[in-house]
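User: I'm preparing a small set of examples for a lab meeting where we compare how different chains pack in three dimensions. I only have the primary sequence for this one, and I'd like the structure in token form so I can line it up with the others. Please keep the answer compact; I'll paste it straight into my notes.
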Amino acid sequence: MIIDKPWRSFAKSVSWRATGTFDTIMVSWLVTGQLKLALSIGGVEVITKMVLYYLHERLWNRVSWGRVMPAKGDYEI
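Assistant: Understood. Below is the structure token output for the 77-residue chain.
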């Protein structure tokens, strides 16, 4: 079984957040027609979505649904 290393997951998270923020800025620019406002919206969005994602992850850590204990040796970081 191939398992991602933590740094790969971190890099994917950062690249996904950058993609999402870029999308928000572009949509905001198209809707408002104002680049400065679009950049402001994107700046706020990147912070709020990181906070929401963190809270979402912490809540999911409390849910046992879908979790299994791997057999010894199945998972290594």
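A couple of notes for your slides: The mean pLDDT is 89. DSSP finds two helices and no strands in the chain.

User: Perfect, thanks.
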